[in-house]
């Protein structure tokens, strides 16, 4: 469902809310805390979403929508098929690098936010599959089963998203995506 049209003031408030939540997480905030930190009324927050849970979900969706736009902009500027996978995953890593551990942990514990992250992870895995298939078709990658490589990437991306990679080997989500980019590109290169 597309986001409702927002006034300039609401759009600014949503941006500030996203910046706050990304930096500090959201589980410990009440609506009163958010209104105070954002210097607005609770009524103003309710204009963005009806409950704190809906507000958090909307902020998480907004963050990932912006991140996806930034990633796709980088891909659009990359012509070489062999570079597109690297650029895609590296740019995903850059986008994730701004997320605090508190935000990532809160997303993992809050089902509506986790669902948004999971949906974006699935979309990213599909995008990797497509980029690999394009690279194979263009002769930039050796003949590989793009769907299989995409599934391996998707499984790893899910483990990253769930925090399992970080817990086991100590990489941030961003660092893990950088390593995944390197692994995939080297695995499929001629």
Automatic annotation (TrEMBL):
One of its GO terms (molecular function) is transcription cis-regulatory region binding. The keyword DNA-binding applies. Pfam families: TetR_N (PF00440). Residues 7-67 form the HTH tetR-type domain. Residues 30-49 bind DNA. Keywords: DNA-binding, Transcription, Transcription regulation. SUPFAM superfamilies: Homeodomain-like, Tetracyclin repressor-like, C-terminal domain. PANTHER family: HTH-TYPE TRANSCRIPTIONAL REGULATOR BETI, HTH-TYPE TRANSCRIPTIONAL REGULATOR RUTR. This is TetR/AcrR family transcriptional regulator. It comes from Streptomyces spongiae.
């Amino acid at each position: 469902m597309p986001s409702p049209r927002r006034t300039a003031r609401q759009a600014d408030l949503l941006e500030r809310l996203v910046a706050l939540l990304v930096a500090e997480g959201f589980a410990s905030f009440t609506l009163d805390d958010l209104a105070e930190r954002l210097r607005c009324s609770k009524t103003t927050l309710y204009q963005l979403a009806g409950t704190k849970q809906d507000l958090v979900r909307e902020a998480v969706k907004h963050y990932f929508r912006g991140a996806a736009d930034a990633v796709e902009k980088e891909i659009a500027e990359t012509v070489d098929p062999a570079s597109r996978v690297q650029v895609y995953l590296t740019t995903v890593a850059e986008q994730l690098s701004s997320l605090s551990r508190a935000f990532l942990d809160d997303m993992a514990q809050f089902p509506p936010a986790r669902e948004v992250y999971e949906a974006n992870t699935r979309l990213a895995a599909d995008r990797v599959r497509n980029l690999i298939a394009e690279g194979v078709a263009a002769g930039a990658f050796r003949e590989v089963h793009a769907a299989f490589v995409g599934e391996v990437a998707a499984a790893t991306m899910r483990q990253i998203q769930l925090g399992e990679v970080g817990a086991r080997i100590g990489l941030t989500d961003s660092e893990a995506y950088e390593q995944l980019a390197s692994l995939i590109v080297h695995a499929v290169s001629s």
